[in-house]
Amino acid sequence: MNVAVIGSGYVGLVTGTCLAEIGHCVICIDNDEKKIETLEKGEIPIYEPQLEELVKKNMDKERLSFSTSIKEGVF
């Protein structure tokens, strides 16, 4: 399933990553360009056990991506 998560803060990032981990194709959208640039580099701005590894794993498998464009979240 294709899923768009609006907001890439603590709740959105963890939710999006967990959905990607169970096999969904997820795009996390946020209007904070700096945050999206950081996430696209695989750098995680919050601490949650194993989150960094899960983000990188799912980005590598192309199940998790990030954008500032709400249009990219409309499937």
Architecture blueprint of SSEs:
Layout lengths: L1 E5 L3 H12 L3 E5 L3 H8 L10 H10 L3 E4 L8
Parallel strand pairs: 1-2, 2-3
Parts with pLDDT < 50 across at least 5 consecutive residues: none
Major sheet summary line: 3 strands, parallel
User: How much is the average pLDDT?
Assistant: 96
Shape: globular
**Strand ordering within the main sheet:** 1-2-3
User: The CATH topology, please?
Assistant: Rossmann fold
Structural class: alpha/beta
Beta fraction = 15-25%
Order of helices and strands: EHEHHE
CATH class: Alpha Beta
Mind telling me the C-alpha Rg? 11 Å
Question: Would you give an account of this structure?
Answer:
This protein has helices spanning 10-21, 33-40, 51-60; strands spanning 2-6, 25-29, 64-67. It has 75 residues and is of the alpha/beta class. The chain has a single domain, classed as NAD(P)-binding Rossmann-like Domain (Rossmann fold, 3-Layer(aba) Sandwich). The protein has a three-stranded parallel β-sheet with strand order 1-2-3. Helix 1 (10-21) links the parallel strand 1 and strand 2 (25-29). Helix 1 (10-21) crosses helix 3 (51-60). The radius of gyration is 11 Å and the shape is globular. The termini are close together. It comes from marine sediment metagenome. One of its GO terms (molecular function) is NAD binding. Residues 1-73 form the UDP-glucose/GDP-mannose dehydrogenase N-terminal domain. This is UDP-glucose/GDP-mannose dehydrogenase N-terminal domain-containing protein.
